[in-house]
Design brief:
- Helices cover 54% and strands 10% of the residues.
- It is elongated and about 55 Å long.
Length: 167
């Protein structure tokens, strides 16, 4: 079995979702995965594989993608860790949460529900998480972080059309 296949199987088993490993024409390896660990954590796992397999890996590029639900969960978890972050700009919140929160798909079902509820208020044609974060931050500023989370919990019982967007 070639290194790419061994590495892909080894990482996939540890991550819990598929990790694609491809060798570029330069000889560099490229890893692609959805949700799962952050890039620094994946790099740690690469080091563990090198020790486990007793081989030196070539330079490796990592490309983590997040599902829309995963990105939304990451934003909620990241903000919940420090609600003072609600004072940051929306694009920065989305970017930092997306790079700093690992395994959003393993978050408690309550956070998964809240993320789905927030996604339900985002305009379908725009599917813009930044707009959803703006709405959440507006709520948080007006009523506090805990009340904003309670609002997300309550959205399960209300049709989204009753909600107002924030300019």
């Amino acid at each position: 079995m070639v290194v790419e296949e061994r590495l892909s199987a080894w990482l996939t088993e540890r991550v819990g979702s598929r990790v694609r490993v491809q060798r570029e024409h330069t000889g560099e390896l490229r890893l692609n995965w959805v949700d799962g660990p952050t890039e620094p954590r994946m790099r740690d796992m690469l080091g563990d594989f090198g020790k486990h397999a007793d081989i030196a890996l070539p330079d490796t590029a990592c490309a983590r993608d997040l599902s829309e639900l995963g990105r939304t969960v990451a934003v909620l978890l990241w903000l919940d860790r420090d609600p003072d972050r609600t004072e940051l700009l929306e694009p920065e919140i989305v970017d930092r949460a997306s790079t700093e929160i690992g395994y959003p798909e393993r978050a408690h079902p309550r956070w998964q529900r809240r993320a789905r509820n927030l996604r339900s208020v985002i305009e379908v044609e725009r599917d813009d998480l930044v707009a959803g974060v703006r709405l959440l931050l507006h709520r948080s500023t007006a009523t506090g972080w805990d009340a904003a989370l309670a609002w997300l919990d309550d959205l399960e019982h209300r049709p989204p059309r009753h909600l107002q967007s924030v300019p």
